[in-house]
Specification:
Bound molecules: zinc ion
Distance between the termini: 37 Å
Number of strands: 9
Oligomer: single chain
Shape: globular
Amino acid sequence: MERTIFYEQVRDRLIRYARVDTQSARVSDTVPTTKKQFDLAYLLRDELTAIGAADVWLDEEKCVLYGRVPATAAGGMAFGLVTHMDTAPDAPGANCRPWVLENYDGGDILLNGEKGIVMSPREFPNLKNYVGQDLILTDGTTLLGGDDKAAIAAVMTMAEHLLKHPELPHGPIALAFTPDEEVGGLARDLDLDRFGAKVAYTLDGDYLGYYEDETFNASHATVLFRGRSVHTGTAKGIMVNAGDLAAEFVSLLPPSWPRWT
Ligand SMILES: [Zn+2]
């Protein structure tokens, strides 16, 4: 597979960002849900400054990072690129050890000889789409966090290239890097005025060339039912079973909510 001139920059950035633990948390009373997301936010802020991005600003309360690639041509409308810094809480994110498998042959991949962890196209058939390419992997004990750090690596590399080449004509490009996407926070704390673009793309997930232009609201609620525990000898008419409350609550919900088939 032919490598683009950006190959090494994107690869090295992804590996560098993957090593920073930015796992978010489903249960948390802080903003962002984990303070360690700031570790990557500071790193990216300094990197944006170093490559010469404009209006670099980190919201030190909300952990949202902003930057801009100024226009090199008149008349262009601003557009934005949004990526997220956190990784999913479903698998460990600390001590990520990324490595590169060059020219993947389509077979099983031994991620970890010591622990016997193998990634197989039998389990992940989409691996077959990447035969002949280089894969960035982990040792199987953590997430890589390519979601969404691969996109961050691509955005940073694009920004660096455009800032180095003002002869390439383009309008203003607004950049935002957000926390807590994996736990429902995507652009919740994005300051749209500061962001400065009326249209934007979220670069996240899925395969090359895939594009979504609509979505549905997948917000969630957590409902806690508390019963009343009473000694059974005197409980009649007083004890309340939390399961009964939950069943009553569910029965009150309209049964014809749209089903996404
Ligand atoms: Zn994502």
